[in-house]
Each structure stands twice: as structure tokens, then as C-alpha cells.
Design brief:
Elements: H1 6-30, H2 36-62, H3 70-95, H4 100-107, H5 110-121, H6 128-146, H7 152-165, H8 167-186, H9 188-199, H10 211-247, H11 250-257, H12 259-272, H13 278-295
Length: 310
């Protein structure tokens, strides 16, 4: 993509951000018909096959395919378990209890978690602003939930959903920083595809046996949401973003990521009728401010994968 103009690279980055922002609404629609575990399997197993096909096509065009050794593949498998089943089971299970706009703001913590685990795992200095930013973001999530929910039962449901969904940024921080050491040697898309493909293998056990009947009952809203999540958000999103990161400075790419939760709020309101109110606006602003504080003013951890995944 280096031969492309900056404007085209920006448009490609924006297209991915829009897809990821709308993914939370698509997940919410899919969860009306599929269990969170089944949704993870139905989304990522086909996506893994498509990504392997893209990887094979690229290798055929280059005339060679260099794969990591078995020990590295095993480590990528472990990272894949954390980054794919772990991340998405937390996100889908939490979003079952949350509005899609809430989930979008929880996932906005991904860059902050990458900064935290980059400091811990890569033995970089852990700056106070990283911890302060994380604390501020968590406070923003509380403001978002407490500022809207006056019904005690609904408040408990949303608090529980937020806690469960928080597992997703934790998983993504581990996954992203863990993949960094392998991407330079083998290429970001190769490493990501292998980790995703191997990490998806246990999802075969979660494949719903009655998927055909469920798709027939869910109709166009369900299968179009699944196609959007699998092809658009995962295959297109992962592959295009990996290319974008090769042509765009990391700081500029990070600025696009801040748009994802804003798009998620818009999608939840326009597609699902989720309300917009002061609690959501204030809490969301605090969350994004905390993420900015946690990730600014430090050497950026280069990672081969998106900093916000839906």
C-alpha cells in the first residue's frame, strides 16, 4: 500500500473504523438469535478460513510461504486462545447484558490495555499517566452506567455486563503485545492469521448444530449481521488495517481508533433506538479522555493488530 496516496490510506482506515463501530450493533442483533459462544464460533471459524485463503493467495503470488516453526506456532496458538475465544466470549457475554453503545466504550479501553501490558511485558517503564488514564476510564464507565440506570435491577445487569465485557480489553492487551515479537520476522498478517486460525480450533466444539434452522428463523437481520461481522469486520478489517499500519504513522492510526466508540454510539442510536443522554455523553468523554491520557506521552508499542477490535 506504500504506493497509494495518503488520502486513499486515510479512506481505507476510515472504512475499517466505520465497520468496527457498527459491529457492536451487529453483535447485538446476532445475540437475539445466537448464544455468545455460538456467535463467536459462527463468526470466526469462517473468517479464519478466509484469512488463510488470503494468506495462501499472497504466498502464491510471491512464489513462497515461510511459516514459523512449531514452537512459535504453539505460542501463537496460546495467544490466539486469549485473543479470539477469550476476547470475544467476554465481549459477547457482556454485550448480552449491555446496550451496544456501552460495549463500544468498554472496548475503547483496548489501546490503554496495550499500553499497560506493553509496559509490563516489554519491561518498559510504567508511567503514572498510564495507570491514571486507566483509572479515569474506569470511572467514566461507572459514570456512564450510574448516570443512566435508575432501575436497581437494570443497574445490576449493566454493572455485571460491564465487568464481564472488561475481560475483552484485558485479553486484547495480552494478545496484541504478545504478537509483537513475532510480527517483524514473519509479517503481521501471517502472524495474525496463524494465531487467529489456531486459536479458533476449540470453537469447533461450540459450533451450533441447529445453525441452519436458526438462520432461517432469524432471517435477513441475522445472516446479514453475521456476514457483516465475518467478512466486513474480521476479514476485511484485519487485512486492510494491517496494510494501513504499514503506510500510516502509528500515532495517526491511533487517532482513527478513537472514532470507533463514537460510531458505535451512533449505530446503537440509529439502528437499535438506544437513547442518547447526558450520562452516556459524560461517561464516554471521561473514558476517551482516560484512554488518551494512558496512551499519550510515551513511546508507542508497535503492534501488528488493530488497537480496537469488535
Amino acid at each position: 500500500m506504500k504506493q497509494y496516496s495518503r488520502h486513499l490510506v486515510d479512506l481505507l482506515a476510515l472504512s475499517v473504523v466505520l465497520l468496527w463501530g457498527f459491529s457492536f450493533a451487529a453483535i447485538k442483533i446476532s445475540l437475539d438469535w445466537l448464544h455468545p459462544f455460538a456467535l463467536t464460533a459462527v463468526r470466526f471459524l469462517p473468517a479464519a478460513l478466509l484469512l488463510f485463503a488470503l494468506l495462501g493467495l499472497g504466498a502464491w503470488r510471491r512464489g513462497r510461504l515461510v511459516l514459523p516453526d512449531r514452537a512459535t506456532c504453539f505460542r501463537l496458538f496460546l495467544l490466539g486462545l486469549v485473543g479470539i475465544p477469550g476476547y470475544n466470549l467476554c465481549l459477547n457475554s457482556g454485550q448480552r447484558l449491555l446496550p451496544s453503545s456501552y460495549a463500544g466504550l468498554v472496548i475503547a479501553l483496548n489501546p490503554a490495555m496495550i499500553a499497560l501490558f506493553g509496559s509490563l511485558w516489554l519491561k518498559e517503564r510504567l508511567q503514572g499517566r498510564t495507570l491514571a488514564g486507566l483509572a479515569l476510564s474506569l470511572a467514566g464507565l461507572l459514570v456512564m452506567v450510574l448516570g443512566r440506570d435508575s432501575n436497581p435491577a437494570l443497574l445490576r445487569q449493566h454493572l455485571l455486563g460491564t465487568v464481564i465485557a472488561m475481560g475483552a480489553p484485558l485479553c486484547w492487551g495480552i494478545f496484541s503485545v504478545g504478537l509483537r515479537r513475532y510480527s517483524a520476522q514473519h509479517g503481521s498478517l501471517t502472524v495474525l492469521t496463524i494465531a487467529l486460525g489456531l486459536g479458533c480450533l476449540p470453537l469447533l466444539l461450540l459450533w451450533p448444530p441447529d445453525l441452519g434452522l436458526t438462520l432461517a428463523q432469524g432471517g435477513a437481520p441475522l445472516w446479514s449481521s453475521l456476514a457483516f461481522l465475518t467478512i466486513g469486520c474480521t476479514v476485511y478489517g484485519f487485512s486492510v488495517w494491517s496494510s494501513v499500519l504499514k503506510s500510516m504513522p502509528a500515532a495517526r492510526a491511533g487517532s482513527f481508533i478513537y472514532l470507533v466508540p463514537l460510531v458505535a454510539i451512533f449505530a446503537g442510536h440509529s439502528l437499535l433506538g438506544e437513547p442518547l443522554d447526558a450520562g452516556l455523553a459524560l461517561g464516554g468523554a471521561i473514558v476517551l479522555g482516560g484512554v488518551w491520557l494512558a496512551t499519550s506521552g510515551r513511546r508507542r508499542v508497535e503492534v501488528p493488530v488493530p488497537e480496537a477490535l469488535a
